[in-house]
């Protein structure tokens, strides 16, 4: 019989274990490009969903890579999973990709784990340190560059943009104190940001929609197109910059 783990330990084991699978298949002399991304998505999803089925048979699951498990509309506990965030970066052989595992309870990310397996790092909402230390003047943006809103923040707060692939890797750059903010707009889904936001909130960071509303999860349509994760010291200034038209 499998051991009985707490939700926090289970989330961490899933993020770490899927990371081991993904690290284990990154042999670029055997597979590369889109094929290794596809097989990574599939294998990480298969392992995580099987472990959740055994350990949490009554919980619902929302994942990027599979149909919903359970009835999300009637279940308060929903695991929100991205088995491989930054599939493009993984396929390209870079180190900025992540595994996201969150447990949302009544829409709030109560437990979260994000692993950055190629960097050997695991962030857990129950153990993460509060972010302190000097501000850096830097803003994480997509590998594809600025969105309209991240450009507005960079311009108005005179912040330098740092391009990082994967939503989890960008959010953990704020958690590590490498950058002060991650501003996203233009599209994303709950699995892309639920676990990162869960860890960021636990680290004392400001997390909200770009119009300042709180972020809630397990919506009927899991589209979560915009958000800001930033140091609390600059939250008012960032939201001001986002609300002022050009
Ligand atoms: N405009 C958009 N619409 C939908 N998803 C988006 C998006 N921009 C970014 N994402 C998703 O957010 C994650 C991080 O993207 P980026 O590194 O460009 O910021 C990626 O997840 P996946 O790799 O899990 O598909 C990507 O697909
Ligand atoms: Mg993703």
From TrEMBL:
InterPro entries: CysQ/Inositol_MonoPase, Inositol_monoP_metal-BS, Inositol_monophosphatase-like. Keywords: Magnesium, Metal-binding. CDD domains: CysQ. The keyword RNA-binding does not apply. The keyword Magnesium applies. It catalyses: adenosine 3',5'-bisphosphate + H2O = AMP + phosphate. SUPFAM superfamilies: Carbohydrate phosphatase (SSF56655). This is 3'(2'),5-bisphosphonucleoside 3'(2')-phosphohydrolase.
């Amino acid at each position: 019989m499998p051991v009985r783990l707490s939700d926090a330990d289970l989330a961490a084991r899933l993020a770490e274990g899927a990371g081991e699978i993904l690290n284990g298949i990154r042999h670029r002399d055997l597979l590369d490009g889109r094929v290794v991304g596809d097989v990574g998505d599939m294998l990480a999803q298969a392992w995580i969903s099987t472990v959740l089925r055994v350990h949490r048979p009554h919980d619902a699951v929302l994942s990027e890579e599979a149909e919903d498990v359970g009835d999300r509309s009637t279940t308060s506990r929903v695991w929100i999973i991205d088995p491989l965030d930054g599939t493009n970066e993984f396929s390209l052989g870079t180190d900025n990709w992540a595994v996201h595992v969150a447990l949302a309870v009544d829409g709030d990310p109560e437990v979260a784990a994000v692993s950055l397996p190629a960097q050997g790092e695991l962030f857990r909402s129950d153990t993460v340190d509060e972010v302190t230390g000097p501000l850096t003047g830097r803003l994480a943006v997509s590998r594809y560059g600025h969105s309209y809103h991240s450009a507005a923040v960079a311009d108005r707060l005179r912040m330098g943009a740092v391009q990082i692939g994967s939503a989890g890797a960008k959010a953990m750059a704020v958690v590590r104190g490498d950058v002060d903010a991650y501003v996203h707009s233009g599209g994303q889904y709950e699995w892309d940001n639920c676990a990162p936001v869960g860890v960021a909130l636990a680290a004392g960071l400001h997390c909200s929609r770009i119009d300042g509303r709180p972020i809630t999860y397990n919506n009927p349509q899991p589209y979560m197109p915009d958000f800001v994760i930033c140091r609390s010291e600059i939250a008012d200034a960032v939201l001001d910059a986002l609300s002022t038209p050009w």
